[in-house]
Amino acid sequence: MVKKKTATPAFTAELLAEFKELLLQERSKIERRLKSSTTSLSSTQQAGEEGPDVGSDNFIRDTGLTLMGENSDILAQINDALSRIASGTYGVCFDCGHVIGAGRLRVRPYAQFCIDCKSARETNDGFPSES
Questions:
Q1: 22: which of 1, 61, 67, 109 fits an S-S bond (Cβ 3.0–4.6 Å)?
Q2: Domain architecture of the chain: domains with CATH
Q3: By the 8 A CB rule, do 85 and 14 touch?
C-alpha cells in the first residue's frame, strides 16, 4: 500500500482560533440538542401505555434515537477536530492528505475530507476514490 503524502496546513494562529471557536460553538449546540432529545425521549411513552398513539410514539422515539445517534457522531467528529487542532494536523484530508480549504472548514469545521474526496465518496457509496 502506497502511503499518501500529507500536507502541512498553513493556517495562521488567528484562523485556527476561528475554527476552534466554531467547533466549540457547534459542540455546545449539539450537546444541548442531545440533552433535550434525551429528556423528550424519556417522556414520550410510559411503560405499559397502550392505545392508538403508541405507533406514533414509537415512530417519534425511533426518529429521536436516529437523530441522537447522528448528533453523537458529529460530536465525536468535533472532539476529534479539536484534538487535531491541538496536535497541528487540523485541516488535512483523511483520504488524499491535502489541505482542506478554509471555506469548507468555515462551513463544516469538523470536515475530515476535502471537497474532491467527499464528492468521490458520495459517488462511491462512502468509499474513497480508487485513484
A1: 109
A2: 13-41+58-123 (1.20.120.910)
A3: no
